[in-house]
Amino acid sequence: METIIHKAETRGKANLGWLDAHHTFSFGSYQDPARTQFGMLRVLNDDIVSAGAGFGTHPHNNMEIVSIPLSGSLEHRDSMGHTQVIRTNEVQLMSAGNGVLHSEYNHSKEEVVNFLQIWVLPKVKDIRPKYQQKLFDPADRANKIQPVVGPDGGDTLKINQDAYFSLGNFEAEYETSYKLHSDNNGVYIFIIEGEVEVAGESMERRDGIGVWEITEIPLRSLSKTELLLIEVPMTTEGHL
Questions:
Q1: Residues 204, 170 within the same domain
Q2: Distance between CA 87 and CA 96 in Å, rounded?
Q3: Average confidence score pLDDT of the chain
């Protein structure tokens, strides 16, 4: 088993007034050669956007972009013709493919929105862009792991990569485990709230831990805990 730990306070920071962002991996003005990606996971940003503000129209290509609102709501517009509002308990997936323009704004004029912005490198390049959005019942992740993104679709959003996103909400002192889908994959676990022991390591709010070269990862919540688990293929350059 191999692990890498990123404590919350070591993340990159950007405060633009309307945006208060924390970057787990190199992004924008935050560049750290030791923290460029974890396997095919390229970006994990924890963004707080002021009321009515947001990211204006800009381009992307050949990236799988997942947005998960933690509080508040996002308004999405893109060149494919979608205009959507994404709220808590919903997950958004945009396959940028051979090119797409989009904007993401705080839908509220009164409250901030806090969301996770995650980028995964695609399995196949230059596909036709695609947009997906789905509501997931939080009861289905009470003391269990709830799949929300996967390569096969079905009950999850379908990603253009052999990657799997899951959410879990656990009461204190709850024990479970996460079983990987492939020996070639690793899992990056982001602690949204609470405290948890991951493979023997104690992790706290907004900490992250990457684990690979293992088939099953033991988890034990030390308090009421919310987790995001991102399983991705590992590459030589991704072994940070």
A1: yes
A2: 21
A3: 96
Tell me whether residue 113 is exposed, middle or buried, using C-beta atoms within 10 angstroms of its C-beta: 0 to 12, 13 to 18, 19 or more. buried
**75 annotated as a binding-site residue:** no
- Domain assignment of residue 6, yes or no: no
Can you tell me the distance from the alpha carbon of 44 to that of 64, in angstroms, rounded to the nearest whole number? 12
Which of 94, 117, 135 represents a domain boundary (last residue)? Answer: 135
Residue 102 annotated as lining a ligand binding site: yes
169 domain-assigned: yes
Mean pLDDT of the 83-102 span: 97
22 belongs to an annotated ligand binding site: no
Q: Is 107 part of any known ligand binding site?
A: no
pLDDT in tens, 96-135: 999 999 999 999 999 999 999 999 999 999 999 999 999 9
Q: How confident is the model at residue 240 (pLDDT cuts 50, 70, 90)?
A: very low
> Measured between alpha carbons, how far is 233 from 164 in angstroms, rounded to an integer?
10
Assess if residue 88 is contained within a domain.
yes
Domain boundary among 135, 161, 186: 135
- Between CA 186 and CA 214 the distance in angstroms is 8
> Residue 198's domain is classified under what CATH number?
2.60.120.10
